[in-house]
Amino acid sequence: MFWDLAGQEPKLNQLFNEAMASDARLVTSVILKHCGGVFEGIESIIDVGGGTGTVAEAIAKAFPNIRCISFDLPHVVNGLVGSKNLSYIGGDMFEAIPKADALLLKSILHDRSDEECIKILKQCKEAIPSKDNGGKLIIIDMVVNVNKEENELLETQLLFDMLMMSLVTGRERNEKDWAKLFDDAGYTDYKITPILGFRSVIEVYP
Questions:
Q1: Is the pLDDT of residue 149 over 60?
Q2: What residues does the O-methyltransferase C-terminal domain cover (predicted)?
């Protein structure tokens, strides 16, 4: 599997992490500018599969009162140095996720099959408080067929589908697909906010 190979090949691991960091900088800047409200009221947040911490670092700088953690496989985060409100934890999202007020999944679930997504979502649900106590999961991912203008982006959608199916076990999903995943994982509600092309911010509540 790609993730196992990345753990064994330092050059591949570095290239992949750099590519993800570049994408993260663009998307995060848009989110903080137009959807920063999703982070209001949160005291702690963990970026699950957060790589070298590009997203967590941006949130930490924008919201100094939020304790931010980038959580990823040990070979990804080993040796990384945090700051006052940014730290790194190594682990496996399929086994256990540290607890926080909110969790963030950026471009994680579209890499995975439905079965893997449900496992990850259930692990996330165990790590956050109830909705009444302010707990939520923030997903930044592709949601196809949200905007009427997306017919012009059909080729891009098909390209991402082919990439996800050939490189990993995932695919791109529409709102109905996402809703089923959330329901199967035991969540009660969600809200989708389109932000950039096919990408949306999805707030999911336990």
A1: no
A2: 3-187
